[in-house]
Amino acid sequence: MKRILVPTDFSAHAENALKVAAQVAKKNNSEIILLHMLELPHQMNDAITSGASIPETMLFMKKANETLDEISNRNYLDGIEITEIVKMDKPIHGITQVSKEYEIDLIVMGSHGASGIEELLIGSNTEKVVRNSEIPVLVIKKENPDFSASEIVFASDLSEEAYLPFEKLLKFAKLFDSKLHLVTICTPNSFKPTHEIEKITKSFISKFDFSNLETHIYNDTNIENGIINFSNSINADVISMCTHGRTGFAHFFNGSISEGLVNHAIKPVLTFKV
Which of 117, 166, 168, 204 could make an S-S bridge to 262, C-beta 3.0–4.6 Å? Predict the structure, then answer.
């Protein structure tokens, strides 16, 4: 894991993400790319187009760079190579562009947690990053001074669509010496007999060379509750899921996961694109 991208809006939630990124970086000797997207008011953009407000624009840029400098010198980042970027662009486009340019391995983003996915760092733009990013995205809900990924839950229907995301998860798990918990959530609306789930699970795990895992079947009223309650029951460190570029989240969520999962899951969420 050579480079970790941390987009920041200078909020406390963004700093929570940066602190976790710092822990990951120290463990893997990674570089952190600290990115601030500078979105100017529409009237300022119009003025820039006309060439009338370049001094004001430079002032915004100068202030953003000064803030990044101050953040980069915080004690918890000691010993980590930091690259600071201030970019004038729409967040989703800028984050995607920087991710490709710097060959980012992991994006770490902050979230307001229980306030919902629309309240993620830089608003609904983060939901777009989670949905569309080809790179794994780790969403941090709260301050986590001792981040661990020792126990990771991977909730899925274990279809062929999940093969590639699971392969990416295995690389992450090996870095952290993680134990994986593959869980299939059974609900009244998505019920399968145990013997059928066990057959699907056995077929799925046979495709991969990874032994530090357990398989589970968990019954609950809905998928959201099942993932959260199961994760809490084993005291998982991270919840992992697939995302789908067209519709948002994994196929087994019938096209889109309930926003309630992000609203209510306090644990870090790690996403991999299908």
Answer: 117
Residue 12 lies in a domain: yes
Q: Give kind and range of the element (H or E) at residue 155.
A: strand 151-155
First and final C-alpha spacing in the chain: 20
Whether 146 is in a domain gets the answer: no
pLDDT for 74 = 95
Last residue of a domain, one of 85, 114, 140: 140
At 212-244, the pLDDT tens digits run: 999 999 999 988 889 999 999 999 999 998 876
Domain that holds residue 31: 3-140
Asked which of 140, 169, 188 is the last residue of a domain, the reply is: 140
CA 224 to the chain's CA centroid:
17
102 and 44 in one domain? yes
At how many degrees (to 10) do helices 163-176 and 12-28 cross?
A: 70
Distance CA 74, CA 25 (A): 15
How big is the chain, counted in residues?
274
Look up tokens 């980042």; give the residue.
77
Residue 140 — φ and ψ, nearest 5°? -105, 130
